[in-house]
Amino acid sequence: MKEVDDSAQPNALIPRPGMLDRWSEQNWTNGVQINELKELDTLTVETTHHTYEITIIDPISAEVLVRGGELFRERTEARVSGASLGGSFLKIHGIYVGFKMELQIGRRHIVTSAVRSIAIG
């Protein structure tokens, strides 16, 4: 079995929110939790590269219809997995500015570029 050195390199750049202590201390006010919204609420989420329109189907399970970007030319049923920095920490069912939005469609996982803005309505 090959041994893997997964320790941080001395000059590695790790975003502050990517550290566990910073992640747990995060304010979490610059975004939304899908389970705190209502059925048929609509979000416009702008990422670094695309804009998405998200309509809530079931707030508890985070089931949504998503349209936008290159992958969702038509409304597509998906589940909002949560917000992350593209690593191992996930703010379940959340969408937050500065974090990537993670969506699940069946067994397929989509990770967007960083969220720049979120509008409700």
**How much helix, percentage-wise, in residues?**
under 10%
The value of Rg in angstroms is: 16 Å
Strand content bin: over 45%
Largest sheet: 6 strands, antiparallel, barrel
The largest beta-sheet arranges its strands as 2-3-4-5-8-9
| Shape designation | globular
Please give the number of β-strands. Answer: 9
Number of domains: 1
Query: Which parts are unreliable, with pLDDT below 50 for 5 consecutive residues or more?
Result: 1-6
Number of helices: 1
**Helix-strand pattern, N to C?**
HEEEEEEEEE
Distance between the termini: 53 Å
Mean pLDDT: 85
* Secondary-structure class: mainly beta
What does it look like?
- By secondary structure, this protein is mainly beta.
- It has one domain (28-120).
- It is 5% helix and 50% strand.
- The chain is built from one helix and nine strands, in the order H-E-E-E-E-E-E-E-E-E.
- The protein has one helix at 20-25, and strands at 31-33, 42-47, 51-58, 63-68, 72-84, 91-92, 94-96, 100-105, 108-120.
- The chain has a six-stranded antiparallel barrel with strand order 2-3-4-5-8-9.
- A hairpin with a 3-residue loop joins strand 2 and strand 3.
- The longest helix is centred in the N-terminal third of the chain and has 6 residues, at 20-25.
- The radius of gyration is 16 Å and the shape is globular.
